[in-house]
Design goal:
Helices cover about 75% and strands about 0% of the residues. By secondary structure, the protein is mostly helical. The two termini are about 50 Å apart.
Length: about 160
C-alpha cells in the first residue's frame, strides 16, 4: 500500500517537472523568435498595455522594486513579464490542484469502506473543531471551566 503511494507521489512530481522543463524550452524558443518589426512591437505593446490594465493580480512590482526609482518603461517591462509568467503560474497551479485531487482519489480508492467512513468522520470532526475554535471576535471559545482547570493545574 505504501509502495503505491510512493509511486503516485513520484509520478506527480515527474509530471510537474516535465511541465516545468517544457515551459522552459518554450520560453527559450520564444526568446529566439522575438525579433519582431517595430510596428509589430508597437501593436504588441498596445495590446499588452490594455491586457495589463485589465489584469491587476500580476500587475505589481516585486518586493523592494518600488524603492529603485524605476522608469515608466522599466515598470511596464516588469509588469509585462510578471503577467506573462503569472498566467503560466496560474495555469500550473490549477494543474497541480487537479493532480493532487487525482492523487487523493487514488489513495482513497485503496481504502476499505470502513476506512473511508472513518476518514470522513475524522475530516468532519476536524472541520467542526476548527470552525468552533474561533468566535466572531476571533478569540478562542474555550469554556471558562476549562480555563479554571488549566489555571488550577499551573498552581
Amino acid at each position: 500500500m505504501t509502495g503505491r503511494r510512493v509511486v503516485v507521489c513520484l509520478s506527480g512530481l515527474v509530471l510537474v517537472s516535465a511541465l516545468m522543463v517544457s515551459l522552459e524550452a518554450q520560453e527559450k524558443s520564444r526568446s529566439r523568435s522575438r525579433k519582431a518589426t517595430a510596428s509589430e512591437k508597437t501593436q504588441a505593446k498596445a495590446e499588452s498595455d490594455e491586457t495589463a490594465r485589465k489584469s491587476s493580480a500580476w500587475r505589481r512590482l516585486p518586493s523592494g522594486y518600488a524603492a529603485l526609482k524605476l522608469s515608466a518603461k522599466q515598470r511596464e517591462e516588469i509588469y509585462s513579464a510578471r503577467e506573462e509568467y503569472g498566467a503560466q503560474i496560474d495555469q500550473l497551479e490549477q494543474e497541480i490542484l487537479a493532480l493532487r485531487e487525482k492523487m487523493m482519489d487514488e489513495c482513497e480508492d485503496v481504502l476499505t469502506s470502513t476506512q473511508k467512513k472513518a476518514l470522513a468522520s475524522a475530516r468532519q470532526k476536524k472541520a467542526s473543531k476548527s470552525s468552533a475554535s474561533t468566535s466572531e471576535s476571533g478569540r478562542s471559545t474555550r469554556s471558562t471551566s476549562s480555563k479554571k482547570k488549566s489555571t488550577a493545574s499551573r498552581k
